[in-house]
Amino acid sequence: MYDFSGKAAIVTGAASGIGRDIAMRLAREGCRVGLFDRDSGKLARTVEQIGAAACARAGNVTEPGEVRAAAAALSEELGDIDILVNSAGILRIGLLLEQSRDDFVDQFRVNVEGIFHWCQAVVPGMAERRRGKVINMASWLGKRGMKHYGGYCASKFAVIGYTQTLALEVADRGVNVNCVCPGPIGDTDMREQAERVHARIGFPSARERVSNIPLGRLGLPEDVSRVAAFLASPESDYMTGQALNVTGGLWLS
Asked: How many angstroms separate the CA atoms of 114 and 108, rounded?
């Protein structure tokens, strides 16, 4: 457990899945959390579950105006933002030579451009105050390619490159920038979506691929939120530009 008393965080993609679990983890450990997601219904339910420590704004990470407005509103409610978790993401499965342009580009708009917009809205304030933690959600598929996942892989490779570069640009101003690279994670909307497509195209299900995971199980959102909490804490003060695997040993570099 970490003590985030007096700290304020913004978590994107916070209505469900990994983002939701990270927001709840930070709140349990004393952090005030601002939630951002395009699903206003699920967002409201997450705020209700967290309680008084949470506030929220609905919007789309691909729209810079919506991001700027939400960042300003959440900062007004929470105070200075100490932690930014960019967890919003989408997946579109398809072979690269057959995937539509829209599906390919949309993954970059959400997975990469969304991080770009939120960092531009929040990190300058961190740099001015000379403190802050940024945690971006990449993937183990940002470190290797996989058939049917080409667009997603390319976008997550880009997240790692963005993270490394921003880390170097703001290191001298007291801001740490790292990313987390989850492996197959169960109990999320994205996993359910992927499994439906896998069944249709004859791709092995996640459960069938568990035998390839050295620790013998799929990951859970809380496996990722533990690592995110560590990166948000003072325990990671001498780490920046890193891409930490949470894969049960499935990927080692």
From this structure: 8
The β-bridge relationship of strands 32-37 and 54-58 is parallel
> Per this entry, what is the length of the chain?
253
Catalytic residue from among 2, 149, 152, 162: 152
Site of tokens 């770009």: 116
Task: Kindly report, residue by residue over 72-99, the tens digit of the pLDDT.
Answer: 999 999 999 999 999 999 999 999 999 9
For residues 56 and 43, the answer to whether their CB atoms sit within 8 Å is yes
Longest dimension (CA), the chain: 52
Burial group, residue 130, by CB count within 10 angstroms (0-12, 13-18, 19+): exposed
Q: Can you give the residue ranges of every domain in the chain?
A: 8-182+220-239
Q: What is the pLDDT of residues 185-213, one digit of tens each?
A: 987 888 777 788 777 887 777 777 899 99
Cβ(46)–Cβ(4) below 8 Å: no
Q: Sheet containing 54-58: which strands, arranged edge to edge?
A: 54-58, 32-37, 8-12, 83-86, 132-137, 175-182, 243-246
Transcribe 181-229 into DSSP letters: EE-SB-SSHHHHHHHHHHHHHTPPPTTTTGGGSTTSS-B-HHHHHHHHH
| 8-182+220-239 CATH fold | Rossmann fold (3.40.50)
Tokens representing 169? 């640009």
Q: Is 152 a catalytic residue?
A: yes
